[in-house]
Amino acid sequence: IRQSKMKILLATDGSPCAHAAVESMERFPFPRDGKASVLTVINRDDFKGKEEKQLSKEQRKVLRKTREMVQKESDKLLAVKADRLKKAGWVVTTEVRDGHPAEEIVNAAQELDVDLIVMGCHGLSAIDRLFLGSISDAVLQRAHCSVLIVKMMDTQTQAGTDAGGDSEHPLHVLLSHDGSDAATKAVSFCASLPFDKADQVTVLRVLPLIGLYHQDIQQRLSGIWQQKKKNAKKELKRATSEPNWTTPLVSAKVRESSEVSQAILNAISELDADLLVLGYKGKGEMEKILAGSITAGIVHHAPCSILAVR
Asked: Would you list the DSSP string of 267-307?
C-alpha cells in the first residue's frame, strides 16, 4: 500500500453495514491527502428472468422504469456517502456500475489502480456468512490490492456512533504476524498510519503446535522449539520498534496453539480489538490453501473488522 497519496475504493450498497464502512473511513487514521472513489453496483441478477425481447411492451416499459429508478436511487446514495467523506477531508469521485457486485468491485479497483478496497459486512449470523462468502470473500481473494472488510459490531448496533463516526474508546488494533514478508508489509503499513496517541496496537505471533496427543508437550521441550520462540520474539521486537509508529502504545504477544485461527480469534475477544490486520500472501496454490485454512476462517468468524494487507 502507498501510504502517501493513497487511493481507496469504497464499495457501498446502502445497507447498514455499508454505512458502517463509511464511518470506519471517517474514523480510521488514513492519510487524508489521497482520493476516495465511491462505487455502487446495480446487481445484474436483480433483473434476471426472460430476455427483454420476450417481454410484452408493457413489461419492457416497467423494466426500463425500474432500472431508471434504481439508477436514480444509486446516484442519491453515492451523493450522500461522497458528501460525508468530503467533509472528512477526502477528495471524492463516484461511480455506478451494472453487473455482478464482486466482479465489478474487483474490476473497478484494478482500473482505478487503488491501494485499498473498503467494504462493509455484518459478520456473525448464518445469512451474513453467506453474504461474506458470495461477495466480500470473493473480493478478498481476487483483488490485486489490500481489502478492509468492516463488520458491524454489537456495540455499534446497540449504542451507535455520532455523526462523525467517533467512538468512546481509542482504537485497538491486533496485528497478526507470522514471520512472512506479507506480515512485514502489514507492519510497515500500520506503522505509517497517523494513529492517535491513545490508540493501541498489539502485534501477535501464534506458533503452531502439533495437535497429536502429547506431541505438543514434546515439541515445547525441544531445543528447536525454544530457538523458534526466541526468533519469534526477536521478530516481534523489530516490529514493535519500527521507527515510524505514531502511537507509543505498541506491544507484542507470543502464543502457542495447535489451532492458529482460534488463538487469533481468542486474542481478538480478550483484547476487545476493533480491527485485525493480516498480511495476505497472494494467489498462489499454497497461499490458496493457507487462505482456506487460516485467513478465510478468521475473516468469516472474527467479530471485528479485518484488514488484509497485500
From this structure: HHHHHT-SEEEEE---SSHHHHHHIIIIIHHHHHH-SSEEE
